[in-house]
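DM from R.C. (forwarded with permission)

"hey, sorry to bug you on a friday — could you get me a structure for this? deadline for the figure draft is monday and I only need the backbone to look sensible"
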Amino acid sequence: MGLYTKTLLKLEKANQMAALYGGFLLTAKSGRERAYYFRLQARWLRKAEALDARLIGLRRKRGRRGA
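My reply, with the result:
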């Protein structure tokens, strides 16, 4: 499995986790619990954003190689 495919799978996982914690935010019983899930969701969203940027870079690199 190549680097591009591995990164794509990690991005899918990060998006799933962000959505999961977003759902937990709606059912949180206290402010402290809500803040905890918010921090977890924010961490996964940052990770997803970084992986997305990496995929864009890999696509550009792949395009230059073919030129």
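R.C.: lifesaver. The CA atoms of residues 21 and 41 lie 5 Å apart.
me: no worries. The chain has a mean pLDDT of 92.
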